[in-house]
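PROTEIN FOLDING TASK:
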Amino acid sequence: MKKLSNIEKAILRPLLESFERKSGNRRVILAAEKFPEYDLNMLEKKKLFITGLDLLVGRDLIVYEWVKFEEGNLVKRVILKEEQVILAYELLGEMTQNQREQIYLSELNGYQKMVCNSWVKKFLDDEYKFISDYKKWSRLWPKTEDERQEFMKLLHSIQDEPDVSLRYLSSKLYGDSKRLEKNYRSKLISVARKYVPLELENDEILNYLGLEMNPSEILFCGDMKYRLKNHVIDAGIHIYGTSVNKETVIAMEILEVGSKKVLTIENKATYYEYIKIKREDELVIYLGGFFGKTSRLFLGKLEIAQIKEFYHWSDIDLGGFRIFRYLSNVLKVQVIPKMMNPKIYRQYKNSMHDPLSDANLMEIKSMLSDPVMAPLKATMEAVLDVGMRLEQEMIDLANN
């Protein structure tokens, strides 16, 4: 059979798209004006459109109707002959819905064998249902198979990979340091935002997944001994604080923590000021914002070392409350807030000059009913009353 002309393809594709979208037994009928090629203001285009219709009628793929009393001049509507859709797809050189479904599900089955991470597995299970229902990939996936394979490499790598820089991982996966950020960063964030059970901003999501712009390290100060291969290291001798990198955290075995309490601090400048006056029974850790896998591993090893009291100090604002909730969920213990009480907040009321947005206040209000946030409920109510942000750096450590 003779190949389809361009005008035939232009008419047939919208009809098949409508066929794929339809539900029930209704016929596929499109009004003539739905076709861009049917231009009443350009006589030659209209004639070409009608010629295309006649060619498709000759192939037994469609029928069409004229406007009453305008036969041979104005087309009213075009009707797809649904018993001929398989032939229509063949002539277009495209797959039918069922063919696409089988190929897409086969591709997805290959991806499902690659994962063990629970949220990635849920993402793939949901995609299986989406393809079965709609015969296409959801918007969370790249459009081409090659790009989907590259995206799956990324999802697979973050299951077990410790904290790693975006550009290093991009080079490792794709031989291009910028490809991950350019092509897949936004897709990854969209998927994680839907399946990771935490309310995080974009960069915070990446940190949670262990992807960072710069190498991670843990800053801490306090009485702790740990084993590193054949060496026992007494971190307590570093009375002005010390740090360990990702590899050390992975390899270390915490032997003893002389400090009875762990205090995590959001801001680095505040961490350095606080360790100058810290109590002997405290192990103080600079946590940053929404910390990644290295910090979670370090905190997990402290839990194994039988540390029972975890304190946290953040800015008194939405970000600080989010970090407190995140830390509580990660540790699965009730974290105790430090210097985040309503008395301290109101003490600096006249010094605060950074108002919180209505959206921020609404989110803080929504946290009031969260049991994890109970220790900060009175503080959040004070923030809702005053509506201002109190940063850690404003608090006088000598008097608190």
Summary: The longest strand covers residues 75-80. The chain has a mean pLDDT of 91.
